[in-house]
Amino acid sequence: MKKLWVFGTSHSTGQCKLKEDINIFKIPGGDQxxxxxxxxxxxxxxxxxxxxxxxxxxxHDMQLFFMVTLVGLVKELPDVIIIEYRNVFEKTWPTFFDSxxxxxxxxxxxxxxxEGFGTIARYFSTLCEEVAIRSDVNDDEYLFFRTIYQPxxxxxxxxxxxxxxxxxxxxxGVKEGLKDVSGKxxxxxxxxxxxxxxxxxxxxxxxxxxxxxxxxxxxxxxxIHCNSIDAFKKIMxxxxxxxxxxNLGIKVxxxxxxxxxxxxxxxxxxxxxxxEDALLEDCIYPYSKHSDNQDEKYFEYDEKLFFQLADKSFCxxxxxxxxxxxxxxxxxxxxxx
Length: 337
Hints:
Low-confidence stretches: 93-97, 99-104, 172-179
CATH class of the largest domain: Alpha Beta
Shape: globular
Order of helices and strands: EHEEHEHEHEHHHHHHEHHEEEHH
Number of domains: 2
Strand order of the largest sheet: 6-4-1-5-7-8
C-alpha cells in the first residue's frame, strides 16, 4: 500500500462533542473523537495506509518542527503528506520553543545538526524517535496518534507539546486582542518552568529569566501579536517546509479548516505572485484552481463551500467539523491523490 501521513490540529483528529454518542469514541481523559474522521475515511476507501499524527492544540511552530523531525527519522518516507495547517494568527512565543528560527530547512535536503537546535528542540528530536517506534510508521495499519499520545504512555512528549500548544500559550483559548497580558503569562511562565524542570531541562538557566520573559511578553503582546511581519514569517516557514518535503520526493497537499474571519481575509489578501507560486498550488481547501481557460489559470477562494461547512449543521457541539464535514474533506482530498 502507498503511505499517507496527516499532520493537523483538533480538526483533523476528529475531536467532536455531541449530545448523542453516535459515531463517537472516547479515549482516557474523556476526549471524544469521531469514528470516521477524514484520515480514517481515506484509509478505508483508498489504496493508502494512513498515519494520523494530528494533535489538538498544537501550535504553528511545533507543528512544522514535529513534521520535519519525524520525516528525518524514518527510513521509509510517506508517498503523500496532508497538512491541516495551523493558522498564522495563532499566538506563538519563540522563547518557549526556541528552535524554530534555526531549524526550518527551506530548500535544503537535510535538517541542521542537533547542535544547531535550541534546548527544547534537541530534546524534542530525541522524543520523536519514540513516536516513530510506537507508531511503527512502516506498517500499513491505520494509526490515530492521539490514542497513544497520553501522559501514561508518552509522558515526556505529552508535556513538551502541551507546553508549546496554542491552547496553553493563548491562556486556555481566551482571545486577548492587542493588550498587555503579561500578568496572565507570568503564571504561564512559572507553570512552564515546572514542566521543563520535570523533564530535566534547565531552561530558566539556559535561556530567559522570568524578568526577561515578562519584558518580552509585554512587548510582544502590545506590539507584535498578529501583525504582518509575524504572519509573513510563519508563511515563509511553511513555504520552506513544503519545499523541503517536495525535495524528498513527497507529494504535499495542505488545507486550512479555520473559522476565524481574520485568517480568511488575510489569506485572501496574500494572493500575490510569491504565495501563489509557493503555496496555493498545493492548497486543496478553501482555495480551488480554475482552468476553464488554459491561458488564464487562477486561484479562487471558495467562499461558498467555506461558509457551507461553517454552518452549524456541519459543526459538532464544540464547534469542530462533524461527520458530514469530514465526509466532504475526505472527498476533496481523495480527488487530489
